[in-house]
Amino acid sequence: MKNFRFKSVIGLFFALLFILNFYVIIAGLATASHLLIACGILLSCFQLYVLEQFGRKSAILKNLPYHVMIDDFMAFMPLKFRRFIFAKNTARLLLNQKQYQILTKRSKNDLTEIIKDNLLSPDDPGFEYLQGNSALISLQCENFRVVIGSGQCHQPYSLSMLNFGRLSQKQLSKKHVHAISQGANIGNCAVNTGEDGLSPHLIRGGADLIWHMRYNDASFRNDDRSLNELMVSTIALKPYIKMIEVKFQLEDLPATKRGLTAFAISSFVKKLRALSEGKPIGIHLLHPGTDLLNFLGKTMTATGVYFDFITIENLINGMPVLQNSGIFQQPFLEAIVSARKMVNQYQLPTKIIAAGVIVTEYELLRAIALGADACFNASDTLIVTRSATDSLKMNRDAQSIRIANFHRNTIAAACSLMGLCRYKKLTDINPADFCRKVNGLETKTLKELMYQTDSAVVRPLYVNLN
Q: 205-222, pLDDT tens digit by residue?
């Protein structure tokens, strides 16, 4: 009842504010007073700002902030102009303030401290930290790579522990796509092409590319819906294509009356591996459940045809504000754990790649501790590395250099954090060393929270970092 009254007072306040604003504008028009009209406009802006601030407490209004409303209102403008105006908003929606500052400083080669927690206040429930040691060991960052490719793969690929993924080329400028590819080339890491596929700007950047293709993509099918092997082979054999990632439709997995059978999936993987002459083949999954993962494990075991890697993505288009909140983080972490359990249960050579907003070394090591072998950071977050001078010809490579700086400095910080915890290699990272504050008096490790078998136990979510 108190909550209802509180909301009623807030609603009454906004109603009175609207009436006052309406009266000021009408009075200004009636008296031809420019001062009253200006006051009415300023009061309207103030009302929208206050309404948006109060709306942050509502999960519904939170998905529709004022800058997104303005972007939708200006949909009549050409995409090129809207992209220029709102280029920075995408990254700011994906990152909280502390992540934004860290990414910006590291892209400029400014010194930052080692991030040993999830950037929350130590007094807040959901605060996480990594237990370290007083003794520091020195590690070589060049060794932190993972080989993707089982015994069935003739061209295994050495993947960096941090790469760039979720590349939305339609939402980014051509220069920015080229800069991401060129920065990844400098940093010796890979770029996932995303659902938009290959583009000349990605190829000219020189990065190692992971080709993301859809199973039902009509552009790779003949008129009879069979796979156009010549076209697929022509693309897959390109030297800059290092791995192939396949995305199936939700109705295709797991097998249903209309979905794919285990034999159809294994046959498609074998065909892709043959057309690419033995390059790693993987599958893209968005928040997979245990049923889907068990189906894939049984399929690979029964047919003897393995996926070389499984990409688990945490990002959902259309809801950028909540990407960094506990609503999406917890299922993402649980999906990584479930995938690792499946791989260990069926004793598969499959690697696991976590794709999401992974900016700091703590987020990187946390994903690896829970079962990931490597990570993709959302490429949209790298927009913050651009500056106003990037459009000048003399500074056309400045953005790619800053992206490479961010990658190099984050890898170096991850190595330093591993040294503080006395981890000599990636497989030494233990989820038992990651602690989460459940409430004011209780702290549990991620191993206790994520690997517990009692499904009735409620797992605390993260507090929104924004």
A: 999 999 999 988 888 999
Residue that the structure tokens 């996480």 belong to: 128
Q: Which of 325, 323, 254 is nearest to 285 (CA)?
A: 254
- ∠ at Cα 65 (325, 78), nearest 5°? 120
Which residue(s) pair with 286 in the sheet?
313
pLDDT at 65: 47
Task: Answer for the pair 444, 129: CB distance below 8 angstroms, yes or no.
Answer: no
Note the maximum CA span of the chain.
83
Distance between CA atoms of residues 364 and 411, nearest Å = 9
Tens of pLDDT, residue by residue over 132-144, are: 766 566 666 656 8
At 54-105, the pLDDT tens digits run: 654 443 334 444 555 565 666 666 655 655 555 444 555 677 888 888 998 9
Please give the backbone phi and psi of residue 129, each rounded to the nearest 5 degrees, phi first: -155, 160
Query: Do 92 and 100 contact (CB within 8 A), yes or no?
Result: yes
pTM equals 0.76
Distance CA 250, CA 241 (A): 26
Higher pLDDT, 110 or 255: 110
Triad 328, 329, 331: Cα angle to 5°: 75
Percent share of the chain, pLDDT over 90: 38
Mean pLDDT of 5-10: 58
CATH of domain 128-450: 3.20.20.70
Q: Say how far apart CA 114 and CA 413 lie, in whole Å.
A: 6
DSSP-based three-state secondary structure for 314? coil
Task: With H, G, I as helix, E, B as strand and everything else as coil, classify residue 354.
Answer: strand
Residue 385 has pLDDT above 80, yes or no: no
Looking at residue 46, what is its pLDDT? 80
For residue 440, give every residue at least 6 positions away whose Cβ sits within 8 Å of its Cβ, in sequence order, or none.
Answer: 123, 125
Distance CA 373, CA 154 (A): 20
- Residues 294 and 338: their CA atoms lie apart, in Å, by 9
DSSP SS3 for 404? helix
Q: In what order do the strands lie in the sheet with 434-437?
A: 128-130, 434-437, 443-445
Q: CB under 8 Å to 104, separation ≥6 — which residues?
A: 384, 385
